[in-house]
Amino acid sequence: MSAKPQQSALIGQGNQLKLASGACSNSGKKSLNEDAFSFKQPTRSTNSTKGTVAVIADGVSYASEAAKASRYCVNEFTAEYFQCPHTWSTQHAISQVLAKINNRLSDKNNQTEKTTSRGESFISTTTQRSSTGSQWLSTLSGVIFKSATAHIFHVGDTNICRIRDNKLTHLTQKHNRKLGNHTSVLTRVIGADKHLKVDYQQITIRPGDQFVLTTDGVHEYIDEHTLVELCGSNDSVEKISQRIVRQAQQNASQDDQTCLLVRIDEMPTLKPEEIRQEFADKVIPPPLQDGQILDGFKVIRSLHASSRSHLYLVKEILTERFYMLKAPSLNFENDEVYLQGFIREAWVGAQVKHPAIMRIYPPKTDSKFLYHVCEYIKGHTLRQWMHDHPHPSCGQVRQILEQIANALRIFKRLQIIHRDLKPENLMIDLNGQVKLIDYGTASVAALAENMNNINEDYPLGTVNYIAPETLINLSSSYQSDLFSLGVIAYEMLTGRFPYPTKTSVRYHVNNKSRSIQKWHYRSALDFRNDLPFWLDLALRKAVESDPEIRYQAYSEFITDISTPNEQAEIEYAHRPLIEREPVKFWQTVSILLALLLIISLIF
């Protein structure tokens, strides 16, 4: 780990979906190949709203214009989809484009299809029929890769499967029905009917995923084990797709053989709604014991356990790398606010890439459990450092505060408010690098716009570190985090808090105190008289109960705890005693009133 933080966080940089594609198509016993495919990765600006299209089609064999139909479906879908309004959802755009293509082909077809007694249209795939007109009929299956989601759509008997961690998952089902031993019928096809039913689903993608799109001349002749083995090669996707088609040929396939292979090489950070979908059906794992294995992660030891969460040191068996695994406590399995915070933490930890911010990685396998895989930080919490250094020098404290401020500046730049800044949520690694952790209570501008946040009717954070405005009216800003930073600085230097403990979450919730006037600062010099006066002034301003008077920038605070602010000293000296020392003022007034009362009683 680097002890020197970078100057900027890597967010929105290199955060694009990167795919690799390869395809191979070969005609079977017919001279004309009736399969078609397309892969279109648009410009960067369009990609953010439209994604990348991979589509495959197989013209119905008996139809006179099967080859034209398959090419028409593929080409028109790709062209029409990218012309859809940007405000349309992906599913709506797919539905509208397919409906338009289907209507056009249906209009071309002037022959009535066979109908069962139930009125269901069937297209024979093995028999020839005479026709008085041209027939434009085709299957169609495709994937639109957008952000961290794959949108799957499907009509007919072409096939889409995903290979992840050497496991194959079928993403489509054949729309056909067997009649006897050698005859099958398609129950859905483009162009056969004015009403088209399309299968649609969306799934979350991960780096390393491979999507294999094939026509029946391939997937009917290659078993799943062989397909997984072929896709496990280190060759290019182009060569792998060629090898898949060649394998189908060697297995006696006489139909047209087409394979379109797409591999996810790099993907953007999950959007909030995608994280919500990813975690929707997951359950909280029970407390883990040393040696237990969860999704390929072996528990080395428990690092921390509380009523809110469990933290373990784990080793990934496959790579032998160490991580921290964080799981919610079973106490919160029905707590919507807490679980939303856990999802929010995953998003923040994956979004921000900076040495001062702990990284969070998504699980690498399909898991039914809810947990985070976090960067392993060798070191200790700031709380432990404070136990080990009960009387630190100003220089030691200043060095740590500067790093915390750097991390908070990164958050501010990204419109993130931590809201639970405390010594327990700050780690110091072996190189002295301070890292900010635990983002479950963070307020994120992007999430406020994209997620249906559950209302919080209780101040989030930890007693004695929460800013007054958060306690009083649940509002928070960057000045709220700065207040917490000031409290930490005060506590590091004195071992105390700048305000009486009654001004805490519990006090304000139970007593409904609504005024910042009840917050009276206690000078750090009362507990440590070797501190310079100008440093106490900086601490006082950092923890001002009124956020308007508080520092407006982290850099101002760091500057004022490093060098005397003469202007601040002058302004403080000219403030009335009731503002400078309200407690001492009223104590003095009380003493004077008591003396006056005694004098009046005597005389």
Catalogue the unreliable spans. Answer: 1-14, 114-122, 124-133
CATH architectural label of the largest domain: 4-Layer Sandwich
Number of helices: 19
Helix content: 25-40%
The counted number of beta strands is 24
Strand arrangement across the biggest beta sheet: 14-15-16-17-19-18
The proportion of strand residues reads 15-25%
Shape from CA axes? elongated
Major sheet characteristics: 6 strands, antiparallel
**SS content category:** alpha+beta
Mean pLDDT: 84
Q: Work out the count of structural domains.
A: 3
Helix and strand topology:
Elements: E1 18-26, E2 35-40, H1 44-50, E3 52-59, H2 66-81, H3 90-108, E4 123-124, E5 138-146, E6 149-155, E7 159-164, E8 167-170, E9 176-178, E10 184-186, E11 199-204, E12 210-214, H4 216-219, H5 224-231, H6 237-250, E13 257-266, H7 272-279, E14 293-294, E15 297-305, E16 309-316, E17 322-328, H8 336-351, E18 360-361, E19 372-375, E20 379-381, H9 382-388, H10 394-413, E21 416-417, E22 426-429, E23 434-436, E24 443-444, H11 445-450, H12 468-473, H13 478-494, H14 505-511, H15 533-542, H16 554-560, H17 566-573, H18 577-580, H19 582-602
Antiparallel strand pairs: 1-13, 2-3, 3-5, 4-10, 5-6, 6-11, 7-8, 7-12, 9-10, 12-13, 14-15, 15-16, 16-17, 17-19, 18-19, 20-22, 21-24, 22-23
